[in-house]
Amino acid sequence: MTLRDIARVAGCHFTTVSLALRGRPEIPPATRERIHRVARELGYEPDPLLASLASYRHDRRGARYRATLAWVTNFPTRRGWADEEIYREYHHGARDRSQILGYDLQEFWLRDDAMTPARASQILVARGISGLLLAPQPAPSMVLDLEWARFSAVAIGYSVASPALHMVGPNQYRCVKLAMEKLLERAYRRIGLVILQASDDRVDHNWLAGYLVMQQSLARRDRLPALLLPRWDEAAFAAWLERHRPDAIISKCAEALPALRRLGYHLPRDLGAAFLTRVKPTREVSGVSESPLEVGAAAVDFLAGMIHRNDRGIPDRPRRLLIEGEWFDGRTVRAAR
């Protein structure tokens, strides 16, 4: 019996199970209680020696405080980034890994009063901060200007276009391929993609790239054009459905599910629907989680390694570390045959 077994039954991510079984306060009490109940029903018994070792390692690492890392944000408001659930999960993963490694993670807002690139750099250096974790930006293709030679820096996701820094993020290309593969396993054949253009832009078009590659594996009669919308448009969505008659869709648009119901579709009887960027998977909705906690943790690991090597400035050859997603079954697609 593993944490992943409990997660499958409880309908959540295995990292949520791990945090809940450790009594972490960021997991809602009702969720913790449900996960504990499932664990008891499945006969899960934690290994006390492993738990003791983990606690010992956490205590020793936590005591060796070395430095502060900055969670650098650039939204129009100080906490604007936190409006996106997946960005909050990135931050949670980064914060927890920072604590394990002996770092403190502090927010730093680039649009504070009278802030300039030079002043921002001076403040960071004055606070003894040399490691910058650049949170996702409010728009794709953003340009950031700091005195980069003073810092080790890692971006989360593709939204920082300049300078070209090391990046850690979800593997959206493989996430959409995974969704296609799972739908094909369930005997869906005419599978469409519905997404906002801005969403595809900010991931370097990896959503569309994965979809187009998978479309080439289908019979010609089953290939469908993606619906890329400049903004959500239910009328355009309805017209696309009527014209192309998909038997399943993949979407990142939260508006798609209620729109399908308003249009009279019964899921999964009339149409299958898989959703990308499922932050907290539930039994109600099928789709792919981008593993945001793991993304945040991996970004801190990458940044800590740079700090240890005194690796600062804009890299000659930026590296990209991509974290795999995970499929979750729900009630919006039929069961696998």
Let me know the largest β-sheet.
6 strands, parallel
* Strand element count: 14
Regions with little confidence, pLDDT below 50 for 5+ residues: none
- What is the averaged pLDDT score? 90
Determine the fraction of residues in helical runs and give it as a percent range: 40-55%
Mind telling me which CATH architecture of the largest domain this is? 3-Layer(aba) Sandwich
Overall radius of gyration:
22 Å
The total count of helices amounts to: 12
Classify the fold: give the CATH topology of the largest domain: Rossmann fold
Gap between N and C termini, in Å?
25 Å
Q: Indicate the proportion of strand residues.
A: 15-25%
Described by the principal axes of the CA atoms, the overall outline is globular
The CATH C-level class name of the largest domain? Alpha Beta
CATH superfamily of the largest domain: Response regulator
Which structural class do you get from the secondary structure elements? alpha/beta
Strand order of the largest sheet: 2-1-3-5-7-13
